[in-house]
Amino acid sequence: MQRRRVSAGTVVGGFVAAVGLLAAVAAVAAVVVGVVAVVFARKVVTPPREREEDVRVVSVDLPAARVVLEGVEVDMPGRYGLWFERGAGHARLGEVVTTNGRLVTRVLEGVDFGRLERARHARMDGWLMLGPWEVGVDYENVVVQTSLGPAPAWHVPAAEPSGRWVVQVHGRGAKRQEALRAVLPAREAGWDSLLVSYRNDGEAPESVDRRYGLGGTEWEDVVAAVAYARAHGAREVVLMGWSMGGSIVLQSVLRSEEVRAALTGVILESPAIDWADILRFQGSTYGLPNDVSDLVTRILSAPVAVGVTGLAAPIDLESLDAVARAHEFDVPMLLLASEDDGFVPIAGARRFAEARPDLVEFEVFHDARHTKLWNAEPERWSGLIEAWLVRRAVSGAPALGEAEVAG
Fold first, then answer.
1. Which residues on neighbouring strands pair with residue 121, listed in sequence order?
2. Which residue ranges traverse the bilayer (predicted)?
């Protein structure tokens, strides 16, 4: 048998070819990672024009007031709204009746409009009320003049004038209806409520780029809302922010002397505290490694963001980090968050509360999903807000009550 002799040149050539192939694979992988990160970054700052209907409507029994659903989170405790037919239909869901782990039967409290029995897909929402007319008290449609133009708002006065207003700031992808749950607790405590809209939320004027600033641009509209409240009799103001609205509220406090001059306190519900942490968490739900999510953070903060996401300017995510800037706050806060949020990790809220235990009353919920704390525990949620607002109305009230103080 003859042995084949392999020359050194052949070996070297094969090694070079292998290295070249690996380099090419690495280059392709880097391109794929970059594309995924860009798509993710663009999704984060682009307002959704249509919400995904991720719930399957299996069956509807109108006479029995029952509906069978399949999908993620369809077994959440509490009462919810159910949108269907691409937003053309709306129903109200009560508590879970039965579940087999896949199909969930819930009480059907009523159908407001649309033909639910014909629907095949839907989405659940924390909003149970469609407008302030359902609260059962007087309200008025008003307009807040922002730098971009007139933004619609609802004003719900307290039973007796007090000069105390709560300015409600809804979250990403939501509208003013999200905050209606807080109107009655505020009113019981003697506070007016101003439920505002802000740029790119589908009601207020759009910005030039039609993109979210994650709090870095929207805060200016909250400043305008506070100015409106003060011009119409507010002597003391509490800001309440939901989800991204929490980030917006915190930025208005940090950036506006006018807001701080009127501010008595801040309420945060499922707030966006640490965007880098949120992006990692949300990336993981799509199966993305932290490296990709961290790249998204760098993209949004870099000049390249203008070209690849449509932003008018990069977002300074460091300036939005409320934990890093916790020492700059000097106003009492009520912070409500859930261990089972599923969208915004509670870790950011914990770190913020730990950084300022002298200011922050931290209330932890369980089994409640993102901005759905009221839905899961309405009596506790409403009681916490009402009691905290009563304390804020008392001159010289201490910052801390009997709530859990993180740390």
1. 56
2. 12-41
pLDDT in tens, 218-261: 999 999 999 999 999 999 999 999 999 999 999 999 999 999 99
Q: Using CA atoms, how far apart are residues 339 and 369, in angstroms rounded to an integer?
A: 9
Closest by CA to 134, choosing from 170, 152, 115, 109, is 109
Number of Cα atoms under 13 Å in the Cβ half of residue 183: 28
Q: How far apart are the first and last CA of the chain?
A: 78
Residues in contact with 364: Cβ distance below 8 Å, sequence separation at least 6, in sequence order: 337, 338, 339, 346, 404
Domains assigned to the chain: 55-125 (2.40.10), 132-274+321-393 (3.40.50.1820)
Sort 88 into a burial class: Cβ within 10 Å, 0-12 / 13-18 / 19+. Answer: exposed
Specify which residues 361 forms β-bridges with: 334
Q: What distance in Å separates the CA atoms of residue 164 and residue 12, rounded to the nearest whole number?
A: 80
List all residues 6 or more positions away from 18 whose beta carbon is below 8 Å from its beta carbon.
none
Position 105 pLDDT exceeds 70: yes
Measured CA to CA, the distance from residue 126 to residue 252 in angstroms comes to 25
The token pair at 94 is: 């009560």
DSSP reduced 3-state for 216: coil
**Vertex 97, ends 92 and 99: CA angle to 5°?**
110
Beta strands of 282-366 (E only): which ranges? 333-338, 360-365
- Report the DSSP pairing between strands 360-365 and 333-338: parallel
Contact 199, 146 (CB under 8 A): yes
Residue 386 CB contacts under 8 Å (≥ 6 apart), including other chains: 185, 186, 188, 189
Amino acid letter for position 222: V
Span 335-381, pLDDT tens digits = 999 999 999 999 999 999 999 999 999 999 999 999 999 999 999 99
Strands (E) located in 212-313: 236-242, 263-269
Query: 390: which 2 tokens?
Result: 């009563």
- Give the pair of three-digit tokens for residue 37: 């990160």
Q: Which residue has the tokens 């999200």?
A: 178
Distances (CA, A) of 70 to 54, 84, 116, 124, 286: 9, 14, 15, 11, 20
Tokens representing 111?
Answer: 């159908």
